[in-house]
TrEMBL record:
Record's protein name: M3 family oligoendopeptidase
Lineage: Bacteria, Bacillati, Bacillota, Bacilli, Bacillales
Domain (Peptidase M3A/M3B catalytic): residue spans on this chain: 174-528
GO biological process: peptide metabolic process; proteolysis
InterPro entries in UniProt: Pept_M3A_M3B, Pept_M3A_M3B_dom, Pept_M3B_oligopep-rel
Keyword line: Hydrolase, Metal-binding, Metalloprotease, Protease, Zinc
Amino acid sequence: MAQELSHKYYKELINLQDATGVESQFQSLLEVPIESVSDLEKWLLDEKTFIHKLDEAMTGHLVDFNRNTEDEDIKATYLHDQQVILPLIMKYEAKLNEKLCDSPYFHELNEERYGLMRRARESKVKLFREENIPLMVKEQELNTRYSEIMGGLTVEWEGEEKPFPFIQSQLDHLDRAVREKAYHKMMGAYRQIKPDMDSIMDELVQLRHQVALNAGFENYRDYMFVSKNREYSVQDCYDFQENVEKHIIPAWNRLAEVFKSKLGVDTYRPWDNNAKLMKNAPYTDVADLMDGVAEMLGKTDAYFAERFNYMRENGLLDLGDRKGKSPGGFCTSLPVSGETFVFANFSPSFFSLIALIHEMGHAVNGYLEFSEHGPTEDYQLRMEVAELYSHGMELLLLDKLDRFYPEKEDFKSAQRELLRRAFTMLFGPLSGDLFQHWMYTNPNHTAKERDEKYFEISKRYGLNPVDTTGFEEEVGMSWAGTLHYFQVPFYNIEYSISMLGALQLLENYQKDPAQAIEDYKKGAGADYNQSIAAIYEETGVNFDFTEPAVKRMGEFLEKVIQDIN
């Protein structure tokens, strides 16, 4: 179903085409005298108001571009933001950070309210190098190129040109011949764009490595840990990877044996790994999808449904596939409007249903945060927190999948499939994190070595039970379809960490649904100036990815799957 591509969902309270005017507003902030703590707090509020105007306009332009990468006017607006406004922001953000951190009143700011902000902005001062600005602008240009290539990618299917998400959706199919055909079509598409993907990634790795060197780091991995203000170490990540390999992968292999039996196949091949046992796609068009998700949310909590219906009525959802639309899905906040926007480019499939529910977890989180505390600022955005509420929403709706799968066996299969997805989220993003650790600590690797490393890591984790004989090259090059590696480096392990918290939320929901939902909403509207552990605690779960926690939640997940009968 075609959707209106309206610009009415965001506010442009600042003219980004007037770069001189934007710069003058930055300069005005720099010239404000600060002679007391109260002056500093007022200055921070004025700075925030201005930054939010910039953020809303730039976010709106970004969403416009993702919705239609082939519109030259939209692209020109977006590229102007990236090539002209972004360098200004980076230049003056550094000056504003210095002004703040150099103020004699900086450390007199209230710790509870400003402590996280102080630490984040001190890190930015430490990381900033003016020579990195053109490198970061070039990085955005390469990411734009990636979106254009993927947005324009189509595949021939039974005599028709289909958007790439349609072919991906066919991997769900119960008919093995359809799945195998779709897999070959996907790999053919990847092979077609692989030279471009290699070229883009080669340049991104070198750009990012130089950014890190300029900032005084040995590699981009170490730079990103400081940039993200992570509350855990590199070694904690390696330990987590080992613990998942030790406790989760054996359970995944056991589950694969059961699944292989249910599929009725002797050999578990790459096109079987995403197969679904449900007979049909859960919906036929976007209207059906939205009607059903609204019902599921309403049966869980009235506020969840109210937010979804509001977004639907106000043009804040763009769902479904079409040519020229960027791949994937995301939820983004509009800080001036106080809105959230959900974007998705998926054909009818089980995954597209769950992806919408996932993004609505982000949206509910965003609305609750805004109503309790106003717009969330960039230093407060820790994905280990954000993904807790997206994964949590998926699992809170586990018992309502019969809305899309009314037949008893299909309903049980859908529940098992969502829980099987929970398994994949414990190791899939984590293996992607390990892949990036390798890429950026070995920045001079070749494209061939990158493919080989991706295949090796894939076989250790998600493809461990799969017979990949003869498809080593295909598996090795399939990293090219993961936008995170291009556009949001080192945003991966957060999915796996937060899934452990979401499984605890499911455990709580099974014991006391009303209390679990109340805890979910409390945590989703918590003060984000707290530590990750404190926010998790408000949600009724623990921020813990040590070996005992991994082992316990893996056993819990396996038992929940076994109990569905």
